[in-house]
């Protein structure tokens, strides 16, 4: 029986400025991983991609687990859980963040909105209400969508501008939020795979073709050299269909990537373009979530296949 490969993608396990989560992220992740372990065949990503590259179909219920951006809680919370449950995973890392050469603009901007005391923000022709936490979150969502339309330098400048206008309290703590090279080495040393998530987390389609090519070559080379492990798979930053283009696919191929992951929903078979693989982005919530819904669906299919009645 032929199956398709489902790739799941997490980011942070616990709450961050940009991705606030209810308390109990590690508990939520544990439940999701337990459900997946019971229902799916969780394999190393590259193993499943090799099957696709050879023109084959993965076994039914094949799932690969991934984590993007290199949040420090991936090592502190996700790695021990994965080890306990004996599940493989791939961590997509950003050399510029590991080196502290760039900052995670999305977290800095998230902090600026969460911790500002202004009632409104007028920014580049639009006015946003900031009186309540809900309004600040809504404003952040709208502004961050606009920021994603800029190239990397323009976006960094705009975030600086927003921080000086909003004058948030305290410190974003973004430098402590992400792994450094030692942390990345520990992930590799504990037997997990890594992949490239670009050199600076630029949204690639906003960059020139030459910059995209330089970025992806540098990212892969630096990860492989400093971590002494293959980084054959790429995950596009942000990863929606607007965030990569034809030049990105060419740059990915020029950097030697045979496979690249998007964040476009869907599963993967032999006909899926290898540089535009589909992936479900999931968050470690304790309630209903796409990962648990998927696990339930897989479990029910497995029970039917085994001739046992499915639980409702
Ligand atoms: Zn990312």
Characterise the protein shown here.
This protein is α/β, with parallel strands linked by helices and 312 residues long. It folds into 2 domains: 5-100 and 178-305, Glycoside hydrolase/deacetylase (TIM Barrel, Alpha-Beta Barrel); 105-174. Helix content is 45%, strand content 12%. The chain has helices spanning 25-39, 45-53, 72-85, 95-98, 105-114, 133-147, 152-166, 174-177, 181-189, 209-227, 246-254, 290-305; strands spanning 5-10, 41-42, 62-68, 90-93, 120-123, 126-129, 193-196, 233-235, 259-261, 280-281. Residues 68-69, 197, 201, 237 line the site of zinc ion.
List the helices and strands and how they pair.
Elements: E1 5-10, H1 25-39, E2 41-42, H2 45-53, E3 62-68, H3 72-85, E4 90-93, H4 95-98, H5 105-114, E5 120-123, E6 126-129, H6 133-147, H7 152-166, H8 174-177, H9 181-189, E7 193-196, H10 209-227, E8 233-235, H11 246-254, E9 259-261, E10 280-281, H12 290-305
Helix pairs in contact: 1-3, 1-12, 5-6, 5-7, 10-11
The protein binds zinc ion (ZN).
In short:
By secondary structure, the protein is of the alpha/beta class.
Per CATH, the class of the largest domain reads: Alpha Beta
Strand coverage percent: 5-15%
Q: What's the total count of β strands?
A: 10
Rounded Rg? 20 Å
CATH superfamily of the largest domain: Glycoside hydrolase/deacetylase
Major sheet summary line: 6 strands, parallel
- Count of discrete domains: 2
Which topology of the largest domain does CATH recognise?
A: TIM Barrel
Separation of the first and last Cα atoms = 24 Å
- Stretches with pLDDT under 50, minimum 5 residues: 305-312
